[in-house]
Amino acid sequence: MPHFRTYPDLASRDLAGSVVSANDELFAPRQNLITPTPATHAVADFGHTGKVYDGWETRRRREPGVDWAIVRLGVPGIVHGVVVDTAFFTGNYPPYVSVEAVSVEGYPDPERLAELTWTTLVARSACRGDTENSYEVTDPHRWTHVRLTIDPDGGVARFRVHGEVVLDPRYLPSTVDLLALENGGRLLSTSDAFYSTPENLILSGRARIMGEGWENARRRGPGNDWAVFRLAARGEPTMLEVDTSYFIGNAPGRVRVSAADEEDGSLEEPGAWWDLVPQTKVLVDTRHRFLVGPRRPATHLRLDVYPDGGLTRLRCFGELDDPARETLYRRFWDALPGTHHEFPETMPYPPAEVPPADQVETR
To answer: Considering its fold, how many domains does the chain have in total?
Structure first.
C-alpha cells in the first residue's frame, strides 16, 4: 500500500465532502464517488438506463472529448496522493485519468468553478479496470476542490483524495477540539485495527452505529490495545470526551489517556508522557467527560484501552496560545497556491482581512 494512503481521505462524505458537478452521469450518479464504504456489485441489478453500478459512470462517447467530475473536499489540505478505484468496472472503465485542483475561498457555483485556472496534480495517466489505481502527488499547496477527468469516458467506483489537513485558523474559536481530523488531528499508529480504524474516533459528529467507531480484535494474550495521535496544533488540553456509545458487550473495561510534547524532546524518552486521564473504569454505551488539570502544552495524545474493546469517539478540547496560533497562520498562508481565488460575495460575513503570521500582533 502506498504511504500516502496512511493520510485521511479529504474528499470523504464522512468529512462533508461533495461532488458538486459532473458533465455526465447518465448510468451512475457522481455522488457515489466519495461514499466512505467500498463499492458493491449486484450482478442482476439493472435499471432503465442499463446495468446499475455503485460508482460514477458516463455514457459512451461518440465524439472527441473527456468526462469530468468536481469534488469539493470536506476539509481543505495538501494532497499527497489519490486513488481512482474502478472496482467492478471491467469493460467500461476509463483507460486514462488525470486530476487537477483549485484553491477557493467562498462558495462559487459549479459554473464559476469551471472558469477558474486549475493546477495539475496527476497528469494524464494509464488506468486499469477493476483496480485501486494509486497516483502519488508531490504538490505542496493547500487545495479546496479537485477535478477528476476520465479519458474518454467510462466508470469509476470510488475516488479517494488522501492528504494532510490545513485548516483556516481564522475560523478557530478560543476553545477547539485539538484532536479532530477536520482541524488537522491525525492517527499515527495503533496496536490493532482489526474491525475498524481508530481514525474513526476523531471524525466529526457523533457516531450513529458501533461500526462508525474503533473496534479491535479480542485480545487473548497479555498487554492492551492503544492508538497514538498527533494533535492539530500544540495546545493545552482542558477536557476530554471518551464515548463508548453503542459498545455494550465489547467496550473496554478501563481507559487511559496520556499526552506528550515533542518540543520537550523525543516521545520515546522515559517520562515523555503524562496522564490526562489516569487508568479509569468506564461504562458501556456512555459518553464520558473528564476535566484536565493541571494544564500544560501537548502535541501528541495516546489512548490506551484495557485490555481491549471499542469506542465511537474521542475528543480533546483545549486552548491555543499565541505562538501556536501564529504557527497555524503561517502554515495556512504558506500553503496557499498563487492561483488562490476569493469569492467574498458568496459569504454574508467574509472573514476579516488577516495579515501573514509574522505580522500578527499577539494578544
So the answer is: 2
